[in-house]
Amino acid sequence: MAIPSIDSVEPFQTKDGSTIRELAHPAWTLAVNQSLAHATVPEGLETDEHYHPVSEEIYHFTAGSGRMRLGEEEFTVEPGQAVVIPPGVVHKLWNTGAVALTLICCCAPAYSHDDTVLTGR
């Protein structure tokens, strides 16, 4: 059984431009219907606006500060908050703070580059 720690997982850049470390995924853990990742948006940067036709996501912010667009709404995000992102809803993050904006992201079904559609905006 795989029980990864964040320091043992190689980071990679997702299609939206954020850097993630997958902590659980059906491809290599006992997870069946979801994935869990630690994501980072460096200070001064932002993700590309995108949506997921199939996956629902939940973001739980753990450090830093920023802004988020979810559909037509924009709001401030900070540690301790959780945001549910339904399938098909456009979203984007901006790091507006002086340190990395970090979050835990749960995707159901599990994250896939193929389920990420960039809007080009």
Automatic annotation (TrEMBL):
Pfam family, one: Cupin_2
UniProt cross-references to SUPFAM superfamilies, sorted A to Z: RmlC-like cupins
Domain Cupin type-2: 39-105
Gene3D superfamilies: Jelly Rolls
Protein name: Unannotated protein
Record organism: freshwater metagenome
